[in-house]
Records
---
Amino acid sequence: MKIYIDGEFYAKEDAKISVFDHGLLYGDGIFEGIRVYNGTVFRLAEHIDRLFSSAQAILLDIGMTRADVMKAVEDTVKVNERENAYIRLVVTRGVGDLGINPYLCKKSSVIIIVGDISLYPEEFYKNGIAIITSSVRRISPDQFDTRIKSLNYLNNILAKIEAVQAGCMEAVMLASDGYVAECTADNIFVVKKGIVYTPHSHGSSLEGITRGAVIDAAGNLKIECRENRLTQYDLYISDEVFITGTGAEIMPVTKIDGRVIGNGECGPVTASLRKEFWKIVGINK
Ligand code: PXG
C-alpha cells in the first residue's frame, strides 16, 4: 500500500503525520470517502466539489487546485494498482501549536489512502438490516452545518455507539427540530405508495454523493422522488426504507425501533433503484 502525503508516496509503516497536526488535536480538517469501481473513481468531480465547499466553509486553504487534487487521487489509485477500492481523502489544518488558533498552522496536509472498506455481508442486501432511532440529535446548522464533512464525527459516533449497544449497525439521527435528518454515516430514504422521499439537508445532514446517484436513478426510472420533511412516524408506516452511503451503497432497512417495514425484505422499488444505481456505476449486477 502506498499512501500519498503532501505530494509524496509512503509505505504504510512510514505514512505518519505530526502529533501537532490540528487534524489530530482538534479534528480541524475535512475528508471524503470515495469508491473506485472497475478502475473508475466514482463521481470524483462531485467529491472534489464537496471537499472544496467544506474547505471554503471552514476557511481552509487546501493549497492545491481542484485539478491537482483530482490528479493526486487518480495517481494514488494508479500506483496502488487497484481496480476496486475505497479512497479516504483527508485534508488537515496542518501543524500548529497546542492552542486552537488555526492561523498558526502554516500549511494544510493532504492525505490519500487507497484501501478497502468492509461491506455488509451480501445477505443483508436481500433481507435488509434493523436500525434504531438514536437519542443523540444531529447538530443543528446554527451550531455547525453538517454539510461540511469535517474530521470531527463525535456527534455521529455517539449515535453509532447507541446503535451497536442495541445490536444494530446503523441509527437514525433526528435533527434538533425532531424531524429525521440522516443516519450516522448514511442518508435515508423511504418509499410510500410508489413515491420515494428523503429529508432535505436543511444543513442537518450530509448531501451524500450516493444519495445524489439514487435521486438520478429514480429520475431515470421515472419514479417520483421528493425531498420532504419526515418524522419517525413516516419511517414506521412506509412501504420500504433504505439507506445510502459510499460504504453501504444502497442497503434496505427492514426494521426500525422494532417495527417491521413492509414485508421484512428488500422492497421492489429499492430493488429497482439498486439495479439502476449499478447501471450508473457501470457494473453489471
Ligand atoms: N451522512 C453522513 C453523516 C456520512 O458520513 C453519508 C451520509 C453518505 O454520503 P456519501 O457521500 O458517502 O454517499 C456519509 C458518508 C463508511 C463511512 O464507512 C461513510 C462516511 C464517513 C465515514 C465512513 O461508509 N460518510
---
Amino acid sequence: MTAMIGKPVNRVDGPLKVSGQATYAYEHWENDVGQPLYGFIVGATIGNGRIARIDTTRAERAAGVQLVMTHLNAPVQGIPTPDPSVPLPYWVAKPELSSPDIHHYGQPVALVVATTFEQARAASNLVDVEYTAEPGHYEFAARHDQAYAPKTLVMGIATDTAVGDFDSAFAGAEVKIDQRFTTPYEFSQPMEPNVCLAVPHRDGEELTAYVSTQIVSAARARIAKTLLMDPQRIDIVAPYIGGGFGSKLAVHAETILALLAARQLKQPVKVAMTRQQIFQLVGMRTTSSQRVRLGAERDGRLVALAHEATMYANPQEEWAEPMAAFLRSLYAAPNRLTRHRLVPLDLQGNEDVRAPGEAPGLLALESAMDELAHALAMDPVELRIGNEPTRDPERDVPFSDRRLVECMREGAHRFGWEGRPARPGSRRDARWLVGYGMAAASRGHPQAPTKARVRIGADGNAVVQSDMTDIGTGTYTILTQVAAECLGLPMDRVRVELGRSEFPTSWGSGGSWGAANSSNAVRRACEALCEKQRTADGRIPAEGLEAEGEIVGASDDPNFTNYSMSSYGAHFAEVGVDIDTCEIRLRRMLGVFAAGRILNHKTARSQLIGGMIWGVGAALHEEAVIDSRSGAFVNRDLAEYLVPVHADIPEIDAIVLDGFDDKANALGVKGIGELSICGAGASIANAVFNATGVRVRDFPITLDKVLPGLPLAEV
Ligand code: MOS
C-alpha cells in the first residue's frame, strides 16, 4: 500500500477550476437544464412592521416579466417548527413571502421573474410597496436589560457552567483582571454568492436544485419542509461551491424563492443574491459584549476564571453562539464560571460564521490573558504554560491529544519570541512602533453521522460517492488520497463524486467536521470493499464491487464522552504602529497547530493561512454597522465592509505538528477548517498593545481607538 495520506498533492479539481470547467450552481446552462428565467428579490425597506399595500401592476407589465410573486400569491409553505432530532436550525422550514409582516430590513417582499436578469432587476424597481412601520429595536448596546438565558447553545452545548466558588476565589485573588470586550457583527461573504438554479420536472412534481450549499442533506430537508414535498422528489446538485464559511450551511431566500417560482412557471428559474442582499438575507455573526474575569496568585497560577458572553439573537430563530464554551477546556483553575445571554433585536437571524464561538470568544479571553501577563510582569507564553491543565478542568476527563504547550514552545522558538520588547511602547523602527503578541488557539472537534460509498469496476478503477461537499477546501483531493491509500490504487484510478443528494448522506462541510468525518467514512467503505474483494479471492467480478462505510455522531461514540477532544495551536504576530498616524500594519505572523493527523499538508497549510487572515480581519478590519433607525447594515458591500487584502497581509506561515489522535477516529484526524481563526486576532491585539502600551477592547482595533492613548512622539 502506497502512503498517500498526508502528502502535499495538488488539488485534483485544480485544472477544472482554473480552466473554467468546474460548473457552479448559477452556471448550468441550456444543455443541462434548458434556458432558465431569472428571479430578482425585492427587499423590505423598513425593519419592523407590515406591508399595508403592494401593487405589482407596473412590474407585471414590464418587458420580459413572467411572474411577480408576493405574499398575496405565494403558495402555502411549511412553517418552522423546532426539531429536536436536528441539532442545528438549518434542517427546518424557512417560508418566504408567507405574510405581510416584516421582521427585519431587507426581508423579501417580492420575487420578480423575467426572461433576462436585467429585465428582472429593472422590474423589481416597479413593485410599489406601502408599509406600516412599527418602532423596532436595533441597538444591541441599548437592550442589555432584555438579556435572557437560552435553554442551550447550538448543538445542545450548556449555556452556563460553574465549578467551585468563583466569587470568593476572585475576591481573594492577589491579581485581578476584570474587563469587557466588544466584537461587531461580521459576515462570511464568500466569493460565490448564495444562488440557486431551480429546475422543475413532471410539472413541478419533482425538482432539481443546483444550489450553493455546504450541507446537501440540510438543503434537501429545508426545501422539502418548506415546499411541503417528499424529500425523495427533490434532487440537490452541488458539486462545486465557491466558499461558505457558515453562510451556506443553510439555504436561504434565493433557493426557496427560485424553487417556488420554477414550480409555478414549470420552467427553470435562477436566483442569485446580490452582494448587498447577502448582508440582509444571510445570517451574520452576532455582535457581542464579553466580560472576562481572571484572578491569579502572584506566581501566575489562575485561581478564578469567568467568561460571560452577551450576544444578539432573533427570538424567532434563536441561535446562540458558544462564545465562552471553549474556556471550559482551555486553562486550569479551581473556580470557574461561564455564561451566555441573548439580547433580542429586530434583525435577521444570526447564524454560523467562521469558527462560531471560539473566534469572538478567544479575541476576548486571550486579550485578557495578555493583560494578566502584563499585570504580573510575566511572559505571556509562560503564564499559559503555568496554567496548562492535566485533565479537562470542567469535565474531569483526560484530553485525547492536546499539545498546546508544544505549539506555544515551537512557535516561540521559530518566531524568535525571546526578541519581544519586554516593555510596551519601547521599540522603534523608523516611524514604526514595533510589538509582538501571541495567543492560544483552540477549537472543538465535532463528529456527525456520515456515510460514503465506494465502487470498483472490473477495470480496477474506483469511484467514491458521498453527498459531502467541497467548498474550496480540498475535499475531492483528500478523499482521493484516502481511497487511493486504502485501496492500494494510484490516485488517478480513483474518482471522487460529491455534492449530490442521491449519494450517501453526510453533514457536509461545516464546523470543521467535514474532512475528519468524510475521510473516516470513506476509509470504512474502502475496508468493507477490500473485505469483499478478499472473499472473492481478490477478483473483481464483471459487474464490479461496491461497499458503504459509515461513522456515527459524537453522541454515539464513547470516546467523545470519555475524552476531551479539541484541536489546539498558538499564534505569534509582529505589528508596526505608525508613531504619528497610528496606522497598524501586520509585519509577520506564525501559527503552530496540533490537530492530529493531517490529510494533505498543502491544502491544510492553505486553509490554516486563510484562517489566520480571517483573524487579521477580526482584529483590524471587519465591522458591519447597523443603522439604528431601520436595522439596515449601512456598509453592506465589500468597499465599506473591510476585509484584509493582499496589501494587508505580509509574511504568514502556518506549521502543523505531525500527529495522530487515536481517540478521535481510526485515521487520527481532527478538523482544521476553523482552528487557525481562533486566537489569531488576539495575537494581533496583543502585539498592538506591546507596540504602543494602548489596550483596545472594542474590536476591530482601528487607528482612531489607539491614537488617543499613544504617547506623543518625540520631535
Ligand atoms: Mo462553519 S461557520 O460551520 O461553515
---
Amino acid sequence: MNDWWKKAVFYQIYPKSFNDTNGDGVGDINGIREKLPYLKELGVDALWISPIYLSPQIDNGYDIADYRTIDPMFGNNEEMYQLIEEAHQKKMKIVMDFVANHTSDQCIWFQESRKSKENYFSDFYIWKDAKSDGSEPNNWGSSFGGSAWTWDDSRQQYYLHYYAKEQPDLNWENPNVRSYIYDMMRFWKSKGVDGWRMDVVTSISKDLDFPDNPRPFTTENQQNGPRMHEFIHEMNQEVLKPFSMMSVGESPAAKSTDGYLLVDPQREELDMIFTFEHMHVDRVKGDVNGRWALKPMDLPALKKILASWQKELRGRGWNALYFENHDRARIISRWGNDEEYRFECATAFATVLHGLQGTPFVYQGEEIGMTNPKFAIDEYEDVELRGNYEFYVKQQQTISEKEFLAAVHKITRDNARTPMQWDDSQNAGFSEVTPWFKLNPNYPTINVAADQLSKKSVFNYYQKLIELRHTEELLTEGEFELLYEDDPTNFIYKRTYRDTVWYVLANFSDQEQIVPEELQKLEGTFIIKNYSDRQTMQNSLAPYEALIFATKET
Ligand code: TEU
Ligand code: CA
C-alpha cells in the first residue's frame, strides 16, 4: 500500500469562502485554480475541498442533490477536471468530500422515495410510521435542533434526518444505496480524485431498534451503529483498496481506546479519522445546552487526550491532526489570544500540532492567523446556529440570548466561514462584489499580503513547519512522550527517533513561564522558534512562545 499521506500536509478549502473569480460574491473552482501557486508556495501536498456538488445549499453543500454534477455556483464539471489536472501537475493531490450519511431532499432518490412505499427508491431512506398518537417514532434529536424526524405528507410517514430536515439520512441497509455510492466514488476516481474526506461516516449504520434516548432531542445512539465497521470495510474492498484512494473519516464519538478499530490497516477500513475528543475540552459535558455550554479550556486535558491518541494509535493506525476546520472556530480566538499575541499564539498552536505523529490538516486562513468575528446574532448564516438558537433560546429557553451569543462568539461554525482575507483592498481581495457572507472587519490588517510582508509572518512559519514534515523522518516515525502533563500552561513533549531527541515546548499563557530546569541544561540546536531572539534554553518562555529544540540521546 502507498501511504503517501503519512508525510503529507493537507489544506482544507471551503470553496464558498475561498476566492471568487466571476464576481458573484461566492468562491468558485476557478478561484481555487487561481490560488494553486499560493498553495504550492505554502508547501501543502493535498487539498481537501468541501462539497461543490449540486446542492440547494441549506448546509453549504453538505446537502447534495447530485453527486456527479458540480453546482453552477462553483463552476462546472470541466473546470473541476481541470483543477484536478492542474493540481496534479503541481504534485498536489485532490481529496473530495464524501457526504453519504444523507443527501439533500432535492436529490432525485429522495424525490422518488417520498412518492410511495413501493417503488425502487422507497427504501433508500429511513421511513417510519407515526406512533398511534401521531407523534415521532422516537425522541431522537437533530444536530441542528429539534426532532430528527419530519413528517412527509405525500408518503404519510416520518423520515429520519440527523441534521437539517432537508438532509434525509440514507438507508445503508439497502445494498442498492451502497452500490450507488460506490459507483459515484468510482466516477470521481476516473476523473483523477485521490481520496475522500468522509462526512460523519460513523453514522451510516442505524440502530434498527430505534431506542429512545435518555433525554429527548439529544443525539446519542447516532454514532457507531451495529453495521458501521461492516459497511466501511465493504466500501474499502469495493473502492478504496482496489483504486488506492485515501480516506479520512469523520468520527465524532471515537475514543483513543477504540479509534484503532477504524484505522488499523489490517482491518482494511479507513486510513485516518478526524476525532472530536480533543476539541471538547472547553465543553461542559452532558449540559442541557449541548455544545453551547462552555467552560474555560483545560490545557492538561487537551494534552492528555492528544497524548493518549498518540500512544493508542502508535503502530496500529495513523492520526489526523487538526485544530480548525469549517465546523470549528478559529483556534486562537477560541483558546488563545487573537490580539496582542496573535502571531505567537497562532504559531504556538501550529508548533504543537505539527510536532505530533500523524498527518496535519491546515484550514484556509489558519496559515495567516485569521480570527473569529464577533457578529450580531442575525448576521450569521449557519443552519446549525439558527436551528440551535430557535431550539435552546426560543423554545426550551434554557440559555439566555446573551449567553448564547457569547458561546457563538467562541465556537460557532461560521467563525471559520468568513471569506478568506487575501489583501486590504475592498472585499479583502476575495471578490469584486459584496461576498455571500460578511467579511471579518479586521481584514485591512489581517490578510495574506500583509502577513507575507510582516517580520512576524504566520504563513512563513507554516511554510517551515510543512517543510520539516517533508524532510524530517523523526516527525513521521519518532516516538512520542508527553512531559509535565499536569502543567497548566506549558505544553511540552518529546519525540525520539534513533539517537535524536526533539523537545517541543509551547507556553499557552500570556505570562512568562519557567522552562523546566532539566530542559534548561540541554545542549543542541533550535529547529524552529517563534521568538526570533531566543538563543538558549535558559530563558523563561515568553507569552505564547513555542519552539522545537533538537538534542542527542544521552
Ligand atoms: O459535521 C458533523 C458533525 O458532527 C457536526 O454536527 C459537528 O459536530 C458540529 O457541526 C460542530 O458544531 C459534518 C460536516 O462537517 C458539517 O459541516 C455538516 O453540517 C454535517 O456533517 C452534516 O453534513
Ligand atoms: Ca464566484
---
Amino acid sequence: MSKESSNSPERIPTHIAIIMDGNGRWALSRGLPRLAGHRAGTENLRRVIEACVEFDVKYLTLYAFSTENWGRPLEEVRGLMRILEDVIDRELQELHKQGVQLRHIGRLDRLKPSLHQKVLEAIEYTKDNDRLILCVAFNYGGRDEIVCAIQHMIENGVKPDEVSDELVSQYLFTAGVPDPDLIIRTSGELRGSNFLIWQGAYSEWYFTPTFWPDFGKEELARALEEYKHRQRRFGHVPESV
Ligand code: IPE
Ligand code: IPE
Ligand code: MG
C-alpha cells in the first residue's frame, strides 16, 4: 500500500495481522491439556473474523502454525493439523456467507495430501468473495518465504539489477496483499517469531498480555483505538516540525 494512504490517524488499518499466541498457557492455567487451548483458540476465530468484517478491515492475516512449530511434540502437531481440518469443515459455509475470501501463505506440501487438497478447495470455493481477505499463515515462516522467493527469482532468470523492493514483494507468498498496517501479538510475548519479517518493516505493533482464546471483539476495538493515535512516519519528518 502507498505510505501516504495509511498514515492518517482516522483510518482503521486496511490490513491487520495477528500472532495468535497463548493457547497452551490458557489451557494450562485451567488444568487442561494444551490441545484444549488450541480448540478454544479456534472458537475465538469466529468472533475476531466477524469483528473485522464489522469494522471494515479489508485484510486479516492469522499466524496459525509456524515452520518452527514442527518441533513440538508429535501429538500436538497432529492435533493442530486435525484442528485446521475441522475448522475448514465447520466454518467454511459461514465464512463464505460473510463474504470472506480465504487465502493461504506458507507451504502446503508438508501437509498430508487430503488436508492439502481441502485447503485448496476452500480457497477455490471462496475466491470470488471480497468483503474480507483472510490469509491463513500455516506452515509459514518469514525466512522460508524469502528463501522461496530467491529460489523462484533465480529459476526465472531475474538479473541482479532487476531485483527491487517491488519485485521481491511480488515473489513472496503475500504477493498482491498490502503490507500489514498493524500487527497484534497476544499472550504477552514481545517478539516477532518469524512472522511477516519483510512485510512488517513499517507495521505498527500492538502487544497484549491476553491469551488468544480470550482476545475478543472488545480487545480488538482497543487495539484499533490505540492504532488511531499512532503517528506513522516511515522515516520521514512530519510536516508540522
Ligand atoms: C499459539 O499458542 C498457537 C500456536 C503456536 C500453534 P501456543 O501453543 O504457542 O501457546 P503458548 O505460547 O504455549 O501458551
Ligand atoms: C508463534 O508462536 C507462532 C504462532 C502463533 C503460530 P510461538 O508460540 O510458536 O512462538 P515462540 O516460540 O513463543 O517464539
Ligand atoms: Mg506460543
